[in-house]
From TrEMBL:
Signal peptide: none annotated. It is found in: Cytoplasm. Required for formate dehydrogenase (FDH) activity. Acts as a sulfur carrier protein that transfers sulfur from IscS to the molybdenum cofactor prior to its insertion into FDH. It comes from Lacrimispora algidixylanolytica. Belongs to the FdhD family. This is Sulfur carrier protein FdhD. Mo-bis(molybdopterin guanine dinucleotide) binds at residues 251-256.
Length: 269
């Protein structure tokens, strides 16, 4: 069990080259296993970073379709020493009915880390609606955010092993979330937003990871209009971004980004 105050630990490593070998110390991320129980039923085991666990639970339940908002939850109790989170929903039978309806239907996702018994029950795009184009932002502003984002994670500087997600509005960064898994980092961002009543329809999300279809689906469900990735999307992610009017950009570097869909929201000066 990792110390609550630490998400990394020091390891001695051997640094090797063709000329020499030398010993040095390196900070290595600590894996934390969190088992989430919903109405007494074990829902999922997540391999994550021991940080912002409440937001992770809340965001995961939202993006998986278990809840529509904070009002669906009666309580969340996190027992950090045991690696367990217990969620009680207002409607007691909703989750049980959902499990029974989707029994045997499982999608193995591209999430990072060892995912034990992980089952994404609602990774589909049914009952989703397209976004409007009311929110626009200057392209130069997005570039500024991307370069700020690159410098924002002290954990990445220390370990080189963390994924980050930053949420921005027209004024700048609202907050940053980090995790060993890029999907978890997104869920933490959304969990924080749900808990604090943030209007996501006027925001842009920047992520350090690549964007597969299960990632873009989280953004569509949250109704975030702009997603910018340091890496690249998949073909299905681009198709879904076009279908639901998400502005999707990737390979953000310096003064350039690759724009894959819906440039209407970016104002070029």
């Amino acid at each position: 069990m990792p110390d609550k105050n630490h998400i990394s630990q020091t390891h001695k490593i051997l640094l090797c080259s063709t000329q020499e070998q030398s010993e040095e110390s390196q900070e290595i991320l600590i894996e934390y296993k969190l088992s989430i129980y919903v109405n007494g039923i074990r829902y999922v085991n997540l391999i994550c970073t021991h940080k912002n666990l409440y937001e992770l639970v809340l965001g995961n339940l939202f993006t998986e379709g278990i809840i529509q908002g904070i009002s669906d939850i009666e309580s969340i109790e996190i027992m950090e020493d045991e690696g367990k989170a217990f969620v009680t929903l207002i409607t007691k039978d909703t989750f049980k009915d959902m499990i029974e309806a989707t029994e045997g239907i499982r999608t193995i996702t591209t999430a990072c880390g060892k995912q034990h018994s992980i089952a994404y029950y609602l990774m589909n795009d049914e009952n989703l609606t397209t976004l409007d184009y009311n929110f626009t932002i200057r392209f130069s502003r997005i570039l500024f955010y991307v370069n700020e984002f690159q410098k924002s994670s002290d954990i990445y500087k220390l370990t080189r092993g963390i994924h980050s997600c930053g949420l921005y509005d027209e004024e700048g960064m609202l907050y940053l979330m980090e995790d060993i898994g890029r999907h978890n980092a997104v869920d933490k961002v959304l969990g924080y937003a749900i808990d604090h009543g943030i209007d996501l329809s006027k925001t842009a999300l920047i992520t350090s990871g690549r964007v597969p279809s299960d990632m873009i689906l989280k953004i569509i469900k949250a109704r975030i209009p702009i997603l910018v990735a340091r890496s690249v999307p998949t073909d299905v992610a681009i198709e879904m971004a076009n279908k639901y009017n998400i502005t999707l950009a990737g390979f953000a570097r310096g003064t350039k980004i690759n724009l894959y869909s819906n440039e209407q929201r970016l104002l070029f000066e």
